[in-house]
Amino acid sequence: MSERESTGFLMKQRAFLKLYLITMVEMKKGYALQMLDILQHDFKNLGYRPNHAEIYRSLDDLVEDGILYRVKKLQPNMNSKHKEVVYYHFVSDGGYEAAMRYKANVKTDLDRCIKILRKAVADNY
């Protein structure tokens, strides 16, 4: 994780989102609105609803970090018109490896956060 994403108490939302976005690119769920829909659906029952802007900022960070690149494709929609959709893929020269290093760093941070939360529950309930 970059210095700007280092955590103090619990992890930053951007790091959390980037983790999920990397996994979605691995699973070939590669366009932003699809990713947003999946995340909103999967976390709805937990009261977490990532917004459009945060998804795009996180994807932009991954592009700027040299992990992902964008490809614009025309996709037909219901009105028989074509809509431009931006898909994300790993950069061929080390993007996947950098993504796996990023995920390993986030895993370490997630484990630390889980320990903090478990301690808080144990100490107070």
Automatic annotation (TrEMBL):
It comes from the Bacteria. The keyword DNA damage does not apply. InterPro entries: RTP, WH-like_DNA-bd_sf, WH_DNA-bd_sf. GO terms for molecular function: DNA binding. The keyword DNA-binding applies. Keywords: DNA-binding. GO terms for biological process: DNA replication termination. Plays a role in DNA replication and termination (fork arrest mechanism). Two dimers of rtp bind to the two inverted repeat regions (IRI and IRII) present in the termination site. The binding of each dimer is centered on an 8 bp direct repeat. Homodimer. This is Replication termination protein.
